[in-house]
Write a structure and sequence with these properties.
Chain A is an all-beta fold. Chain A is built from no helices and 11 strands. The chains are: A mainly beta, B mainly beta.
Chain lengths: ~110, ~120
């Protein structure tokens, strides 16, 4: 069956370090993958999109990689700040027309000052 | 600053009652999505519309849930009758589909539903 796995345990890091979050998937052939941030009591907010033919995408302190052979995406936040503390969700677009998104369960990141 | 709005933000109701949730998508977006989020299941897609036409509602319990888009500025999700297991946060999101490719989705603040 199709599955998207994110580390369900919270990731705790020190301010200034690089946070690396993992998204693994099985039995999908995604056209593209997205990363969202969700704060408590709020809806997810789009961060980055990476297509199947792209290896890496950057936006300010954020970097996403996409390895379709390993079926894995890595999400990096460099020079992390306490304000980066949130839950990060990966989502895959797949299926006919590639319109639907399926979300992983998310990884909670806590950046300690 | 365009954003998706949802009403109500919170709803507490008794089992068996009808619940209607409303969503105003961002003007110009041609696709609207309804999701449900729980601790156990995470974020699940219930249904989505493109240009107001329902494209997929396979994630929705058909016997009690219904979703409609009476016009381009309003999407509704109705539960009748509601059950305690429907307790969750319901999110509406809107986005653009261009050349059959869907890009980022913009989420509303959600409706927190509690069914007692």
């Amino acid at each position: 069956s199709q599955k998207i796995e994110q580390n369900s345990e919270a990731l705790n890091i020190q301010e200034g370090k690089t946070a690396t979050l993992t998204c693994n998937y099985t039995n999908y052939s995604p056209a593209y993958l997205q990363w969202y941030r969700q704060d408590p009591g709020r809806g997810p907010v789009f961060l980055l999109l990476i297509r199947e033919n792209e290896k890496e995408k950057r936006k300010e302190r954020l970097k996403v990689t996409f390895d379709t052979t390993l079926k894995q995406s890595l999400f990096h936040i460099t020079a992390s700040q306490p304000a980066d503390s949130a839950t990060y969700l990966c989502a895959l677009a797949w299926g006919t027309g590639r319109r639907a998104l399926t979300f992983g369960s998310g990884t909670r990141l806590q950046v300690q000052p | 600053d365009a954003r998706v709005t949802q009403t109500p933000r919170h709803k507490v109701t008794e089992m068996g009652q009808e619940v209607t949730m409303r969503c105003q998508p961002i003007l110009g977006h041609n696709t609207v999505f309804w999701y449900r989020q729980t601790m156990m299941q995470g974020l699940e897609l219930l249904a989505y519309f493109r240009n107001r036409a329902p494209l997929d509602d396979s994630g929705m319990p058909k016997d009690r849930f219904s979703a409609e888009m009476p016009d381009a500025t309003l999407a509704t999700l109705k539960i009748q009758p509601s059950e305690p297991r429907d307790s969750a946060v319901y999110f509406c999101a809107s986005g653009l589909v261009v050349a059959r490719v869907s890009y980022e989705q913009y989420f509303g603040p959600g409706t927190r539903l509690t069914v007692t």
